Amino acid sequence: MSWTRVFMLGAVLALPGAHGMPRKNAVCKNIPGDPGWPSSSEWASLNQTVNGALIATTQLATLCHGRDYDEEQCESLKEAWPFADVHVQESAEFLMPFYQNQSCDPFTAIDKPCELGNYAQYSIAVSSVEDVQAGIKFARENNIRLTIKNTGHDLLGKSTGKGSLSLWTHHLNSIEFMDKYSGSSCYKGPAVRLGAGVLTSNAVKEASDKGYRVVTGTCPDVGVAGGYTPGGGHGVFTSLYGMAADNVLEWEVVTAEGKHVVATPTKNADLYWALSGGGAGTFAVVVSMTTRLHPDGAMVGASLGFDAELAGSTEKFWEALATFQSALGPVVDAGAVASYAITPYAVSAYGIAIPNTNASEVERIFAPVTSAMAEIGIELNITTTMHSHYIDFFNMYFAQAVSTTPAAQITGGRLLPRSILETPSGSKDIAQAFQKAVDGGFAIVCDAVNADQPRPHSNAVFPSWRSALLHCIIVKTWDFSMPWDDMTAFQKNLTEVVMPEVEKVTPGGGAYLNEANFQQPNWMQEFYGKNYPRLRDIKRKVDPAGIFYSQTAVGSESWDEDPSGRLCHV
Question: How much is the CA Rg of the chain, to the nearest whole Å?
Fold first, then answer.
């Protein structure tokens, strides 16, 4: 199946069974079966308006069920299902197992019928501003839920919704380079305009071919301008160039009113501020963004590790972790970003990024860490690789490794304040909370960063990024061979036990809104902090009718799903 598959005139999906009527005293979006749900002729008219780009959702996993069952293809799909690529390429597929809710996956019984569940009912394969405008108009006039999907790389269930019309922006993949940006008096350097669907791998390669770096993440098939940058966007250059949102010069968007506008620090300034770190899917539909470019140059990659055997005991291992983490400040101050994983009784740092330096500088940069570890009897062995261009570093450490890591996860996240980590008691308390998480069946992946870099314009990046030393995710790979109740028990434990332990020892930390627990209590404070009141005001101004909704996004507290899955205003 491919994105060019089109909705055939007159071919309408079978409507689900009885859903019940919308609850009383609530204004709800229509779902299939409701009296206000659009007729087949109305859907056909929309399809004509968007030149045949309307796609009726048929889930990938239908080939594992009922009359469509194909054993060979189903077995192949089972192998691919936990990874991103197969979901990225399809209009309505997404990566969040909890929201997939076993409505149609390859691992349930063959005779279990597929249901759309939380999947979008239809998608528009967007190729123009006019397609976006048509989708917004149709959703508004028919009172149906509108969702936005770029790649489906989404840990919080934002890119899907029951009975929704989805704007699939994945194919807005134009890339336009500018030697001198002319849209601002504050910046006249090189820039690039990236369509909303441009993936990290494409952006990195195209920029490298021109002799530049562009600020992206490390996952090759994440959309740079889709949800990544509006959420803030961290990566290997955070300690040098700041967050991805700090580099944005302008946003090209379609508003809830259907207007095609450009937002800059001086034009539609509130919208620019909100889109630059305030989260995706709630203020406007991003068509493209223009961002700064940076000269390419040498990169050093470094790797290191230690475990309980090297430390001498389990207790000493966790003490060593506290020492290691508390010493990372000078490393990130030198422009490096250190990524590492904590698994039972082992720490592995792979692909530490040290831009604009050479191998001979690594010993000096890491001296605070190696000295601190040596004092507790652990000699770190640091291996290095030298790269003349960033893309060489990216291809060696991330292009293959990240793509072959399962993306189906249970995830929580935390930003850890530097002021706490750099105290003996704070670093010890954090290590103990991490130990409880690991003992509970979770792994921890951290990035040591210094995101408090000079930035030309104010934006809505969560302020806790500026004072954090670590961004960590507490993660459990979803095991589709386990009973559903066992996996959801991990989600419950994450929300009720594991994350509260980490939060208790990191007051003021908060969480990165793109990599966090979708069930995070007090998410307005934990994801947005002091920015939330202004973001909420902007949301009310640019989308007073609530056309745009996504889970834990600004303004989503005004909506709730009823027992049948309708989105209802509360």
Answer: 24
Q: Which bin fits 163, alpha (ψ -120 to 50), beta or left (φ > 0)? A: left
The three-state DSSP-derived secondary structure of 522-560 is: CHHHHHHHHHHHHHHHHHHHHCCCCCECCCCCCCHHHEE
Could you give the CA distance from residue 540 to residue 108 in angstroms, rounded to a whole number? 42
Q: How far apart are CA 315 and CA 317, in angstroms?
A: 5
Tokens coding 381: 């062995």
Three-state DSSP at 410 gives strand
What pLDDT does residue 11 have?
31
- Output the DSSP codes for 456-480: SS---S-THHHHEEEEEEEEEE--T
* Phi-psi map region of 120: left, alpha, beta (phi>0 left; psi -120 to 50 alpha): beta
Q: Let me know: does 519 contact 525? Beta carbons within 8 Å.
A: no
- CA-CA distances (angstroms) from residue 166 to 125, 154, 267, 549, 564? 9, 15, 28, 12, 19
Residue 262's nearest CA partner among 200, 319, 184 is: 184
Residue 146 is predicted with a pLDDT of 98
**Which residue in 236, 147, 242, 191 sits closest to 452, CA to CA?**
242
Dist. CA 77–CA 458, nearest whole Å: 45
Profile the chain (570 residues) by mean pLDDT over runs of 10 residues.
32 34 66 97 98 98 97 98 94 95 97 97 98 98 97 92 97 97 90 98 98 97 96 98 98 98 97 98 98 97 97 97 98 98 95 93 96 97 97 94 88 98 98 98 98 95 98 97 97 98 98 98 98 98 97 97 95
3-class SS at 292? Answer: strand
- Interstrand relation of 346-355 and 299-307 (parallel, antiparallel or unpaired): antiparallel
Strands 468-477 and 383-387: unpaired
pLDDT given at position 402: 83
Q: Which domains does the chain have, with CATH numbers?
A: 27-170 (3.30.43.10), 175-296 (3.30.465.10), 299-528 (3.40.462.20)
Measure the CA–CA gap between 441 and 410, rounded to whole angstroms. Answer: 11
Within 13 Å of residue 430, how many CA atoms lie on the same side as its CB?
32
> What pLDDT does residue 26 have?
57
431 φ/ψ angles, rounded to the nearest 5 degrees: -60, -40
Write out the H or E segment, with its range, that includes residue 569. Answer: strand 567-569
Contact 472, 414 (CB under 8 A): yes
> At residue 169, what are phi and psi to the nearest 5 degrees?
-95, 10
Lookup: tokens for 199: 């993936």
What was the pLDDT predicted at 403? 79
Q: How far apart (Å, rounded) are the C-alpha atoms in residues 527 and 537?
A: 17
Q: What three-state secondary structure class fits 444? A: strand
What the block records as the tokens of 532 is 């939330």
Q: How far apart are CA 237 and CA 133, in angstroms?
A: 35
How many other β-carbons are positioned within 10 Å of the β-carbon of residue 114? 20
Say if residues 100 and 118 touch (Cβ distance below 8 Å).
Answer: yes
The answer to whether 59 touches 77, Cβ cutoff 8 Å, is no
Place of tokens 């239908």: 62
Q: Specify the DSSP element, H or E, that contains 346.
A: strand 346-355
